[in-house]
Amino acid sequence: MSGAADREAVFPTRQSLGIMKAKLKGAETGHSLLKRKSEALTKRFREITRRIDEAKRKMGRVMQIASLSLAEVTYAVGGNIGYQIQESAKSARFRIRAKQENVSGVLLPAFESYLTEGNNDFAMTGLGKGGQQVQRCRETYARAVEALVELASLQTAFVILDEVIKVVNRRVNAIEHVIIPRTENTIKYINSELDEIDREEFYRLKKVANKKKLDNAAAEADRQHRSEELAAMEEENGAPERASGPTDLLAAEEDEDVIF
Amino acid sequence: MASQTDFRDRQFLAVIGDEDSVTGLLLAGIGHVTPPPDNQKNFLVVDNKTDTAAIEAAFERYTTERKDIGIVLINQHIADKIRHRVDTYTQAFPTVLEIPSKDHPYDPEKDSVLRRVRRLFGE
């Protein structure tokens, strides 16, 4: 293992090894959870994109029908009613409200359309002629707008999901490619350092034992030597008494008193 | 990210479009004019004489300034004129929706969202 490898700045101790192991476990759990979240969101995302595709096509058709009915109105009324309508628009009858939907912890807004009661800005439109066409046109356009609102909520969900999926994937990748390798490296580093320390300790103990052995041997040799010398000296001095004397310890009558 | 309170009071739609589209959508009842002091309309009629700056200003007003608009509808051929603005608009609220107009058939290839869909699926 190279010392330059990406790892965290920790002291190689057993405690930090424990911390790192816990961290690795946490990172792996988090990784699998986030991965699952990302998959759930992607599934939803694909469904939404498919529905957007469909809804966009549907919108094309619906708008075509709606313009046709507007053309009918123009024909029936016998003139352009655009100006009149633009002037008489005051308060929105067709409104939207946002509600939320929870997909794996992501709040997706969805628009819901509703009609407010009682205000009709176009009561006078088509009063002279073409009232029926105007009414039909309004209904057609109301349906078209409903389709548009549905499409808009899909699109909002699309934009939000897109963003969230990016964030989640970034996290998954960060854990997978940065945090987990780094923690593993740290664990490897701590293990190798600990092994190194163990080896050093073992070597040191061996050295100490060796030294002790040598010292003991030297001390033993010294003692041996000294006792031999002593024996030799004694032999020179009082060999005659000693020769008969100490054979029977019990027989030695006169010991000197031991005074401590 | 849209916050909780951000879209609670967004209850109107806004339209930037040619006369027919605007007329039709107003007939459906989406037109709204704010009370007298400022008298802001939530629709803009674009014809040949409307210049791009005005369209951009309206787009800006509906998407950024006004906080009561949830969906901005814009005719595709008008969106084309301010394409760079529409393409760089990535917020979730309000939603910008490109709609077909009578004279200009709908082209899915130009739609900013559909293009993103295509790009995401690698087409």
Automatic annotation (TrEMBL), chain A:
Region (Disordered): 216-260
The keyword Transferase is annotated on this UniProt entry: no
Location(s), subcellular: Vacuole membrane
InterPro entries for the chain: V_ATPase_D
Compositional bias per record (Basic and acidic residues), positions renumbered to this chain: 216-229
Highest taxon, organism lineage: Eukaryota
Alphabetic keyword roster: Hydrogen ion transport, Ion transport, Membrane, Transport, Vacuole
GO molecular function: proton-transporting ATPase activity, rotational mechanism
Biased composition (Acidic residues): 251-260
A GO-annotated cellular component: vacuolar proton-transporting V-type ATPase complex
Keyword Membrane: yes
Pfam families reported for this sequence: ATP-synt_D
NCBIfam families: V_ATPase_subD
Entry similarity comment: Belongs to the V-ATPase D subunit family.
Protein name (record): V-type proton ATPase subunit D
Organism per entry: Parathielavia hyrcaniae
Lineage: Eukaryota, Fungi, Dikarya, Ascomycota, Pezizomycotina
From TrEMBL, chain B:
Compartments where located: Vacuole membrane
GO cellular component: fungal-type vacuole membrane; proton-transporting V-type ATPase, V1 domain
Keyword Transport among UniProt keywords: yes
Pfam hit, one: ATP-synt_F
Record key words, sorted: Hydrogen ion transport, Ion transport, Membrane, Transport, Vacuole
A GO term for molecular function: proton-transporting ATPase activity, rotational mechanism
Family: Belongs to the V-ATPase F subunit family.
Subunit structure: V-ATPase is a heteromultimeric enzyme composed of a peripheral catalytic V1 complex (components A to H) attached to an integral membrane V0 proton pore complex (components: a, c, c', c'', d, e, f and VOA1).
The protein's role, per its UniProt record: Subunit of the V1 complex of vacuolar(H+)-ATPase (V-ATPase), a multisubunit enzyme composed of a peripheral complex (V1) that hydrolyzes ATP and a membrane integral complex (V0) that translocates protons. V-ATPase is responsible for acidifying and maintaining the pH of intracellular compartments.
Protein's name according to its UniProt entry: V-type proton ATPase subunit F
